[in-house]
Write a structure and sequence with these properties.
By secondary structure, this protein is α+β, with helices and mostly antiparallel strands. The chain has helices at 12-19, 124-127, 143-163, 168-189, 196-211, 218-224, 229-240, 244-262, 267-273, 279-290, 294-303, and strands spanning 37-41, 53-57, 61-75, 78-83, 86-90, 95-98, 104-111, 138-140. Strands 1, 2, 3, 4, 5, 6, 7 and 8 form an 8-stranded antiparallel β-sheet that branches.
């Protein structure tokens, strides 16, 4: 059987052209290399987006840090609101969406995982939990750490505005320092040693992210993780407050929303892409979680 096509992704130039077609202050982000790295003041970007950004998957990591105001964004299946001194991380491959209208200042730093290859930071995806499938995207910083993070982001911004990617090693050095500060703050906000339930839940989330189109039953995940379905259900519910079945359903719908927006596939083809053989069941499942049919969702996105 042929392998399903990958879920569409959007690099930074494509994202800007789609959602911010007439924004002269950000034209420099459309230059060669911006898909690998860029940093920009938040007030020059998100406040100029005229309409809601539907579920979208980018190919790079993004770090949103506020110095004033608030920002609300849905990352995966959860919604987060951050304020000054707080940070939101959207890892590469994660699905995000947000509405316009937030008034804030701060920094948005965007970097492709490959940007750190060949440096001391090459193992960053393994070392830093917040860049893993199961990592928490939200981070509240103490006053001192927030000051350090702000200084590093400002230095990255100055370097990028003056030289773009002419001196990538300088950008990588500042970026690695930033990620190291965030890693220390992240570790301080996390429990000492992950419980067995947390470790099992993390493995479940990673398997869900990589095998969704193949595995739809809790028992299938339990078998892959070498535990009983009841044990998996108890661990996931204890750790997240949601059952594995709900996690699976919500993730199917989330993947479908990305395809409905970022592709021209038919509803039946989208059902197949997310591993649902019966288009009627897929439509019922989608409506159960979204309150609208897949076709209704697509039409709403086209006119919003």
């Amino acid at each position: 059987m042929a392998q399903p096509a990958p879920i569409p992704t959007s690099d930074s130039p494509e994202f800007l052209r789609r959602h911010m077609p007439h924004n002269p202050p950000l034209e420099y982000l459309l230059t060669t290399g911006s898909e690998a790295f860029f940093v920009v003041p938040v007030e020059q970007m998100y406040q100029h987006i005229p309409r809601a950004v539907p579920p979208t998957r980018a190919i790079a990591h993004s770090c949103l840090f506020l110095t004033s105001g608030t920002a609300t964004m849905r990352v995966g299946t959860d919604s987060y609101t951050i304020q000054a001194g707080e940070l939101l991380i959207v890892r590469a491959g994660q699905v995000f969406s947000f509405a316009p209208g937030d008034i804030n200042t701060g920094f948005l730093c965007h970097f492709h995982p490959d940007f750190l290859l060949g440096t001391a930071a090459s193992g960053v995806g393994v070392t830093y939990e917040f860049l893993q499938f199961w990592g928490k995207p939200y981070l509240s910083l103490d006053t001192a750490t927030a000051g350090f993070v702000r200084q590093l982001l400002h230095r990255l911004l100055v370097e990028y505005q003056e030289h773009r990617l002419t001196y990538p090693d300088v950008l990588r050095a500042y970026l690695l320092a930033l990620l190291s500060e965030l890693n220390r703050a992240y570790a301080a906000s996390s429990p000492g040693t992950p419980t067995a339930a947390t470790q099992l839940t993390n493995c479940f989330k990673q398997l869900l992210a990589t095998s969704l189109r193949e595995l739809h039953q809790v028992g299938e995940y339990a078998e892959r993780l070498h535990v009983t379905p009841n044990h998996l259900a108890k661990a996931v519910r204890t750790t997240t407050g949601k059952s594995p079945a709900r996690w699976i359903e919500q993730t199917i719908v989330l993947e479908a929303k990305v395809l409905l927006y970022q592709s021209q596939l038919t509803i039946s083809e989208i059902a197949q892409e997310v591993g649902v053989a019966d288009p009627s069941y897929f439509s019922r499942l989608f409506r159960k979680h979204e309150g609208v049919t897949p076709l209704g969702f697509r039409k709403r996105m086209a006119t919003s």
